[in-house]
């Protein structure tokens, strides 16, 4: 269970909508009940494009190219943080 926090990022104070025959000066707040909702902000995907140069010698036509980083093994792949999140959700939270 999540414990309430004393510092909230947002606050919402809906109107009570109570209609009464009482005089308006009688209305005052005895107390304020609070409820808190903990949620994550929207998550965006960050895409990193790795490019390597491919050069050829105009005389001998020998082709030379730089190497991709060792962790980049496919044309398109998931990064380590996204992979860790998916593994956690599948194995710990049992989400298929």
UniProtKB/TrEMBL annotation:
InterPro entries: Znf_dom_IS66 (IPR024474). Pfam families: zf-IS66. It comes from the Bacteria. Residues 33-60 form the Transposase IS66 zinc-finger binding domain. This is Transposase IS66 zinc-finger binding domain-containing protein. It comes from Geobacillus thermocatenulatus.
């Amino acid at each position: 269970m999540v414990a309430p926090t004393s510092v909230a990022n947002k606050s919402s104070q809906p109107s009570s909508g109570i209609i009464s025959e009482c005089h308006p000066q009688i209305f005052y707040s005895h107390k304020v009940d609070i409820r808190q909702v903990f949620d994550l902000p929207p998550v965006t995907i960050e895409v990193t494009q790795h490019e390597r140069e491919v050069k050829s010698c105009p005389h001998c036509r020998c082709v030379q190219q730089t190497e991709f980083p060792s962790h980049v093994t496919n044309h398109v792949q998931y990064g380590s943080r996204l992979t860790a999140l998916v593994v956690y959700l599948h194995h710990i939270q049992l989400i298929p």
